[in-house]
């Protein structure tokens, strides 16, 4: 039995740029060198997004660094990777993304207690610039309230 891993790679821009509506946990189809790089914490989600192709969900532009001890069989760092979800979840995501303004955004990448890489994705709606300003204002107000409570 594996112990829960400390690997947690977050997409910090996701909550700032998007309003996250529904979340799903998906498995990822990976090569051996990719899982080794993820276990070293060498992956990034900042420019990644999901796309539905022929009834399957793919993650595009997710960066997984080349494995340092890899050989000629090392992976392409930004290749498209298939996400593994149930048919029911895929159908829900397909319906949601058909509506205009909705997209699939990776929120965090982690290793579960069985040692498998999992990706938390969300169906999201892009925020307008005034929504972002509102988010920043709320964050600043909360920070000031916390300061007031400490003094």
Automatic annotation (TrEMBL):
Short name of any one Pfam family annotated for the protein: SmpB
InterPro entries in alphabetical order: SmpB, SsrA-bd_prot, SsrA-bd_prot_CS
Any one Gene Ontology BP term: trans-translation-dependent protein tagging
One cellular component (GO) term of this entry: cytosol
Stretches assigned to coiled coil: none
Keyword annotations: Cytoplasm, RNA-binding
Subcellular location: Cytoplasm
Top-level taxon of origin: Bacteria
CDD domains named among the record's database cross-references: SmpB
Region described as Disordered: spans on this chain: 132-151
Function as written in the Swiss-Prot or TrEMBL entry: Required for rescue of stalled ribosomes mediated by trans-translation. Binds to transfer-messenger RNA (tmRNA), required for stable association of tmRNA with ribosomes. tmRNA and SmpB together mimic tRNA shape, replacing the anticodon stem-loop with SmpB. tmRNA is encoded by the ssrA gene; the 2 termini fold to resemble tRNA(Ala) and it encodes a 'tag peptide', a short internal open reading frame. During trans-translation Ala-aminoacylated tmRNA acts like a tRNA, entering the A-site of stalled ribosomes, displacing the stalled mRNA.
Stated name of the protein: SsrA-binding protein
């Amino acid at each position: 039995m594996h112990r829960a891993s400390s690997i947690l790679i977050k997409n910090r821009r996701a909550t700032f740029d998007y309003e996250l509506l529904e979340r799903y946990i998906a498995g990822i189809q990976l090569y051996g060198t990719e899982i080794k790089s993820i276990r070293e914490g060498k992956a990034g989600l900042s420019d990644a997004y999901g796309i539905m192709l022929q009834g399957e969900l793919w993650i595009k532009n997710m960066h997984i660094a080349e494995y340092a001890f890899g050989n000629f069989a090392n992976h392409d760092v930004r290749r498209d990777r298939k996400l593994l979800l149930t048919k029911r979840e895929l159908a829900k995501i397909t319906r949601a993304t058909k509506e205009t303004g909705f997209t699939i955004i990776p929120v965090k990448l982690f290793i579960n207690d069985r040692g498998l890489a999992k990706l938390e994705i969300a169906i999201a709606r892009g925020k307008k610039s005034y929504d972002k300003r509102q988010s920043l204002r709320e964050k600043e107000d909360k920070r000031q309230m916390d300061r007031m409570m400490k003094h």
